[in-house]
Amino acid sequence: MSDEEEATCSVGGEEEEAATCSVGGEEEELEEPERPSAWTSGWDDESNDVEADPDPHATPEREILWACENGKQSVVEEILKEHPEAVGATDSDGYTPLHRAAYSDFPDIVKVCEYPKVYLLDTPGVMFPKIKDMVTGLKLALAATIKDHLVGEDIIADYLLYWLNSCGNHSYVEHLGLSEPTDNIQHLLLTAAARNNWLRKARDHTGVQTIPDVIQCAAKFIRAFREGKYGPVMLDDLSDIEEQQVIK
Q1: Quick one: pLDDT at residue 194?
Q2: 200 in a domain, yes or no?
Q3: 109 to each of 64, 78, 146, 149, 178, how far by Cα in Å?
Q4: CATH code (residue 158)
Q5: Average pLDDT of the residues in 74-87
Q6: What pTM, to 2 d.p., does this model score?
Q7: Is residue 36 part of a domain?
Q8: Structural domain boundaries, residue 85
């Protein structure tokens, strides 16, 4: 093979990381392909940047998106007084005012209540990695912010039963076809599943048996709560706040 036909590739030293290719003695620099990080969010990724609105004040919907992204809380409040429907505005990339305020780190804009302080936050499809205690985790699961199977339908149902009973709410008795309230989740699930014909096939040493489907029953119990079948239920204990208001 002649010198002109021979091709070799080399990578520069530590100071120069660009790759070069030598063909017949002539070196040509090769561009390193861009490798976007797997952890780059859609908001921060320059290749998927949100286009700036050339006229953000043209409509209430466009203005609230601009105001939330730039932390203009007073502007947001004025817009929502006159045009409350603007809270559901979206830009060409599907971002809402809530998205823009959360991504731009303006928590005061997503505060929905001053006392007690309540914030409405949004994450890009990622669950917050740390839950401070088990009770908080169960409340989040019951409110459907964590997938049921990750916690366990029977465990979520057990917490729901405890909370309904502690509030004196026994509306589940009629809904599930029970004869009386109970604080035993296994008794509730077995009885309700049998009475409502929520059954499944199971195999044991004697063969295939039809047994109550307690997981299906738990899922229906939880779904009924989320659909409001047991009335409005407050999962947080506000007794301390109510006492402080009375003192004031």
Answers
A1: 95
A2: yes
A3: 11, 12, 25, 33, 46
A4: 1.10.1580.10
A5: 85
A6: 0.53
A7: no
A8: 54-119
